[in-house]
From TrEMBL:
InterPro entries given in the database record: RmlC-like_jellyroll, RmlC_Cupin_sf
Family matches, as Gene3D superfamilies: Jelly Rolls (2.60.120.10)
High-level lineage: Bacteria, Bacillati, Actinomycetota, Actinomycetes, Micrococcales
Protein name per the record: Cupin
Species this chain originates from: Ornithinimicrobium ciconiae
């Protein structure tokens, strides 16, 4: 039977809003997580080297994805995949960013290994 999911808002600093639809907080499992994020212009986060793969799909605005290979600007309707163990830092573009992130296994603060 299909299970109806309600997003759970997770507070974070810097004005970013996270609404987890599935994952450790929303559904209590850790094999994957799905969350919608809204980040204002100027938002960024510390560099991380996560234990999970992350697929990021931008719905509106732009997201800058900084890796050791350079910076990728990901606009609305585009996505990017970062792999577990890869050094990465996310930053919202000049108009902010609204995006969906899918992490396998599920996102965890400990598993992000932020600098």
């Amino acid at each position: 039977m299909a299970q109806h999911l309600e997003p759970v808002r997770i507070p974070v600093p810097g004005g970013k809003v996270i609404e987890e639809l599935a994952g450790r907080v929303a559904t209590g499992h850790n094999n994957y997580s799905v969350a919608r994020m809204s980040a204002p212009a100027g938002w960024d986060e510390p560099t991380q080297r996560p234990d999970f793969d992350e697929v990021t799909y931008v719905l509106a605005g732009e997201l800058l994805v900084h890796t050791e290979a350079g910076t990728e600007t990901v606009g609305a309707g585009r996505g990017v995949l970062t792999r577990a163990g890869e050094r990465v830092r996310y930053e919202a573009g000049p108009e902010g960013a609204d995006y969906v992130a899918v992490c396998v296994p599920a996102f965890s603060e400990e598993g992000a290994h932020r600098a």
